[in-house]
Amino acid sequence: MEGSLVAFVYKDLQAATKNFSDKLGGGGFGSVYKAVLRDSSIVAVKKLEGISQGEKQFRSEVSTIGTIQHINLVRLRGFCAEGDSKLLVYDYLPNGSLHSHLFHEKQDNVLNWKTRYHIALGIARGLVYLHEKCRDCIIHCDIKPENILLDADFHPKIADFGLAKLVGRDFSRVLTTMRGTRGYLAPEWLSGVAITAKADVFSFGMMLFELVNGKRNAEQSEDSNYTFFPSSAASVLMMGGDILSLLDSRLNRDASVEEVTKVLKVAYWCIQDEEDSRPSMSLVEQILEGVSDVNMPPIPQSVKNFVDSKEHVVFFTELSSKLSSRGQSNSLNG
């Protein structure tokens, strides 16, 4: 035991995962496997790849992650560090990832609007904790539906927080080249500017659009054109159009117009080109809780720049951050 964390032996985890056979998922930093411990409890074991840190530094970083506990964060139960083998052991969450519920085609088990709204609020609360309530601000750096796990009651829990620091220098290289992550990355990732908590705000905003629409923001249609949901939704929101036409069609318009409008406004504020124009996650939390109001956002230049095309989606334009005027950070809540 180190603090509240269990130091596992590699061969025990190998046995618990049946030699790493039941894979739950994977990303740029390793694969996750389902495991059954000797006491019959089910856990998720993440086998990290590309960790160049020594054992001492790894243990130190992991023990920091172990102290971070919040209802909307996946709990780290323990770790294993033996030679080159570095593994993390987490609570197992039976309902899998938000990604698996949002983007499947099946009509059954579709997340209703009330659940989606609560998921958005829970993720916001988890990020407020990471950004503002921990001793040091923890920037997640990889907020996307695959990293939001759902417990038995569909309460959201953020996975993989603290990994950015654990992985170190390689993190941004893996992130910017990893398929499936780019659509959630703030423009400053590619411009070389120092990353702040506002990068997580941007990713959260991109994810809000997907909670509304039930599809990836960038979709290829049958005629091979690409559509970008934040671009197509902008005119409906700005012109006071039929907001529920933007909702996941599987929900059959069964949602509060006021709440969907609020979520879309928050999403556009979160993806402003200039990070100074984006709200803090605590302000986002207040807006979703109904404590603060939210004004109509300016449409980000990067959204305006997107034109449906047969080319693959370009999420970033170098112009976008330069064209966006810093005068747009008037208030979100007037």
Automatic annotation (TrEMBL):
Protein family membership: Belongs to the protein kinase superfamily.
Main localization of the protein described in the UniProt heading: membrane
List of residues binding ATP: K47
Membrane topology: Single-pass type I membrane protein
Reactions it catalyzes: L-threonyl-[protein] + ATP = O-phospho-L-threonyl-[protein] + ADP + H(+); L-seryl-[protein] + ATP = O-phospho-L-seryl-[protein] + ADP + H(+)
Full protein name: non-specific serine/threonine protein kinase
Entry-linked SMART domains: S_TKc (SM00220)
Record has Cytoplasm as a keyword: no
One Pfam family of this chain: Pkinase
The enzyme's E.C. designation: 2.7.11.1
SUPFAM superfamilies: Protein kinase-like (PK-like)
Lineage, highest ranks first: Eukaryota, Viridiplantae, Streptophyta, Embryophyta, Tracheophyta
UniProt keywords, alphabetically: ATP-binding, Cell membrane, Disulfide bond, Glycoprotein, Kinase, Lectin, Membrane, Nucleotide-binding, Phosphoprotein, Receptor, Serine/threonine-protein kinase, Signal, Transferase, Transmembrane, Transmembrane helix
Subcellular compartments: Cell membrane
Annotated transmembrane regions: none
Annotated GO CC locations: plasma membrane
Domain Protein kinase: 18-288
One MF annotation (Gene Ontology) recorded for this entry: carbohydrate binding
